[in-house]
Each structure stands twice: as structure tokens, then as C-alpha cells.
Amino acid sequence: MVSETIKACLQCGACAHVCNAGVEVDAIIRETRALGGAKSSPPWWLKSIFANPKAVEQAASFASRHPYAAGLGLRLLGAQFGQEAQKMADFLAKEPFLSSQDVEIKGNKNGPTVLFFVGCIQNLCFTEAAKAILELLLAGGFQVFLPRNQGCCGMALFSAGAFAEAKKAAAHNLQIIMKQRPDFIVTGCATCASMISKWGELFGDDDPLKQAAVDFGKKVYEFSAFIRDHLDVDAVKRASWSEGKRVAYHLPCHQKYGLKQEKSSPQLLAKAFGEDFVEMDQGCCGQGGLFGIGHPKESHVLAERRVQSAEDVRASLVVTTCSGCLLQWKMAIKKENAGLKACHLAEVLNW
Question: Could you say which of 11, 181, 316, 351 is the most buried, measured as most Cβ atoms within 10 Å of its Cβ?
Fold first, then answer.
């Protein structure tokens, strides 16, 4: 029973949030996974891919060009993981966002500097959201860095207790960030923002990257929080394509429990959509990084609950600020044939 609990933990942080004694249960489970107290869910090949900065993009590129061969390979590597990973592959873009950019530095050369950390899923699947965020940053007068060789933030590895691989992923990104020394790091994924703020935990006090990890962890912003703190919120309007839609917001666990920023996104939506913005019951969508492909049945049950919450308030559009959550919503809507659409917050705002 204890072993199953450790393996099935979503790492959402809700338990630590409500614990009156201040026990960080999620951290204890990560440590237990790292020590081998329970077999962590991700197989070796998946951890290897996430730890390699270019492997994720290469694997996605192969899957988009050769879906049958990729699906067969995934099933041979592990039936359950392979089947679920292939479902996610259905949402791959024709070209990764970062590969489509002509230059790595854009915008006002005299403006404040922002490193746009795109994240794996947004780079590979939700390129329209990434484009919307980039357009906003450029319109805001910022100089934007878009390093093409940026890699995974490491959250999936960190949650699985694969600390060595997570540290490798963080170190790769830190070397890139240290060259640019940006004023801010902005990401459109609450999970990435939460992980970047935790990078310092991966390095020992005698590690030369420790201080950089801590310093840059304090400079990271989730997209909506950056708008709130550094842009003209009064300029927010709804995008024209969203006219006539009733919109609800899904709060990512890492935004609520990791970043403790549950108000910034709803405030923007309420301002832009007025009476067309409706509150729905909140809860975990069930994606949970690698949990979604390691425990598909449980993940689908949680996703179905969220879809029902949106339907209960008659929403026609669900907006979120986490790439993993957005992927889970799109998969659930496709499975349930629900009369819903799901998109990133940046896609429904017009500047």
C-alpha cells in the first residue's frame, strides 16, 4: 500500500499546502523515489530523453514524420508508456517553435532583457501560444532572448526522484542563461516556472552553479504574473476570435501550490471577458508530468472531472497557463467529444 502511494503521487503539492505541521510530503516522496523505496514510474529510456537537451526535440521530430514507426517503437520500449506517449504525439506541431525563429535575439536593443523559456511541450506542440507570448513581449518594448538550444526545465525528472538527470537538465539551461544575464526569465508554463524557482535545490553548496541557480530562480515569471507586474494591465482585451465564447480558467497545481499565484490569470480574464468569464470548480487535471502516461486510468478519471466542471458552468472555452495541463485538457476533450475548446491564456488576449 505504501509502495503504491509513493508510485501514484501526482507531486501536485496539495498535501504539503494543507499540512498544519508543515510537512513537505511531496518532497519526502521524491526522496523515497530517489532512494528506490518504490520503483519510480518513468522507464530508463524516458529519463534519458528528458536529460538530453536535444533528444526531446529529435524524438518529437521523428514521431511527427514517422508516426507509425514511432508508435511501434514506443510500444516495444514499454506497452503502457508507449501507448500513452503516442496519444500525446498526436498534438505535435509540424515544426518546433524555436526551430522556426530566424534569430535568437529580438526586440528593443535598449529595453529590459527577457529570456523566453519556452518549455518542451509549448515548443513542440503549442507553438501558437509561444508566438502570442513572444508578440506580447516585443510589443511591451523588451529585448527578448530565444536560445534555440534551451532544454527541458527538469520537472518531470525532479518529480520522479531522478535528481542527477534533473540537475543535468538545469545545468545545461543555466549555462545558457548565464551567458545572457537577462533581467527577467518569462515562461508560458507554470510548471516550468515552478521548477526553475527550485533549481537551487539540485546543487550542493560547493557547486559553482549553486548561486546562479538561486539567483535566476528569483527572476523567473509565469506569463500572467509578468503581465501583472511589468506591463500595462489596462491594455488587456479579448482576442477577436473569442467573441461570443464563455470562458473558464483551469488553475494549474504548480501555479497554485508551487508559485502561490492563483489570482493573476483569473484577474486578467475577468478584465478581458467581463461577464463571459465564469468560475468553475478547480482541481488537478491528472497530467502530473509523467503521471499521466504512467497511470493513465487514474489520470483520465481526474481529467473527466475537470471537463464536467467546465460543462457545469456552460463554458465553451477553457484557458490555462500550464503546457502539461493544456495537453491534458486537449486529450480529454478529444476523448470525451466535449463541446469545448482549450487554449493558453496568451492566445485569448489581444494587445
Answer: 11
Residue 79, judged by CB atoms within 10 A of its CB (0-12, 13-18, 19+), counts as: exposed
Distance CA 281, CA 221 (A): 25
d(CA 267, CA 288): 25
Q: For 228-265, how does the pLDDT look when each residue is reduced to its tens digit (9 = 90+)?
A: 999 988 888 999 999 999 999 999 999 999 899 989 99
CATH 3.40.50.10700 domain position(s) in the chain = 235-350
The three cell numbers locating residue 145: 532572448
Q: Is 1 helix (H, G, I), strand (E, B) or coil?
A: coil
CATH no., domain 235-350: 3.40.50.10700
Q: Which helix (H) or strand (E) holds 92?
A: none
- Is the distance from CB of 290 to CB of 159 less than 8 angstroms? yes
Cα–Cα distance, 310 to 144 (Å, whole number) = 35
Fold adopted by 98-229: Rossmann fold (3.40.50)
All residues at 6 or more sequence positions from 337 whose CB lies less than 8 Å from its CB, including other chains: none
The one-letter amino acid code at 89 reads: A
pLDDT tens digit sequence for 161-210: 889 889 999 999 999 999 999 999 999 999 999 999 999 999 999 999 99
User: Strand, coil or helix: what is 222?
Assistant: strand
- Enter the pTM of the model: 0.88
> CA-to-CA distance for 72 and 346, rounded, in angstroms?
35
How many other C-beta atoms lie within 10 A of the C-beta of residue 293? 25
Q: What are phi and psi of 113, to 5 degrees?
A: -95, 135
303 CB neighbour count, 10 Å cutoff = 23
Coil, strand or helix: which one is 140?
A: coil
The answer for 107, left when phi > 0, alpha when psi is -120 to 50, beta otherwise, is: left
pLDDT in tens, 158-167: 988 889 889 9
**Which residue(s) pair with 186 in the sheet?**
116, 221
Q: Report percent pLDDT > 70 for the chain.
A: 83
Q: Please, what sign has the CA dihedral across residues 217, 221, 222, 223?
A: negative
Nearest to 249, CA basis, from 221, 220, 283: 283
Instruction: Return the closest-CA partner of residue 328 out of 297, 298, 295, 288.
Output: 288
